[in-house]
Amino acid sequence: MAAPCGFCGQPGKIDKEHVWADWISRALAPMIMRIEFGRNEKVKTWTGDAINMTVRAFCQSCNTGWMSGLEAETKPILAPMLKGIPKVLGTTDERLLAAWVIKTAMVAEYFNADRKYFTPQERHGVMKSRTPPPGVRIWLAHYIGEKKAHNVSDQLRFPRASDGALVPAFCSTLTAGQFAFQVFSYRRALAESHTFNVRAAPWYTMGRWENTTLLPLWPIARDVALIWPPRHPVTDWSLPVLCKRFVVAPKPPGVS
Question: What is the pTM of this model?
């Protein structure tokens, strides 16, 4: 029996899907690629003239249909940002880019096939609505460094204060050229607190990432344009700190 597609859930011919689309790979070649999944898992690094990071999890209909269409619609927005060219994002652009970001994060999650944070229902919802699932937060950043393509995806667990039960969470940070994004989500229904320990940002941002380094893309809080890039870029020094900025707190005293 054919495996179900990761997005539509239907059995069918499963194609290879690039985490970074072919057009992005061509725009960035040659490149240095760095992939890291999980805080304690092996880091893979390689060089080449294409990203060639593929997963086999999505059907031909999705791959050549709505996913290909989303790439085509997003390309005029994203292409100049890859090269660091300033871009003003209206709310239509923001919604489209948010759909592309969450689709890309969900595809990248399949590179670590053993564990998934997002459910089949959430992936199906993205396919149908082209909207991130409830509770997802997305930020945009400007990356200046040697790695033209980089991805870190972490499966996190936050202990509840009352009983130490672990609340699943997810963080994915990706760069492509000078464009970068970060996705964060957690299971709100299981959590008692909706604040998290966050590692301080570089000193020149006064310790807060959202001040001048990250632009909040999703959820869209108001009907105003975003001006990219933000004031301060992410560098090869600050990128690892950004990737690990959500800290898993120790269990509260008395909880075994």
Answer: 0.90
pLDDT per residue as tens digits for the range 65-83: 999 999 999 999 999 999 9
Pairing relation of β-strands 234-235 and 137-144? parallel
CA–CA dist 195, 148 (Å, integer): 32
User: Within a domain: residue 108?
Assistant: yes
Q: Taking all residues of the chain, what is their mean pLDDT, rounded to a whole number? A: 85
DSSP label at residue 28: H
Phi-psi region of 28 (alpha: psi -120 to 50; beta: other; left: phi over 0): alpha
pLDDT band at residue 162 using 50, 70 and 90 as cut-offs: confident
Residue 59 lies in a domain: yes
For the chain, where are the E strands, in sequence order?
14-18, 31-37, 43-48, 54-59, 87-89, 137-144, 149-159, 166-176, 179-186, 215-218, 226-228, 234-235
Q: Could you list the residue range(s) of the whole structural domain that residue 237 is in?
A: 14-243
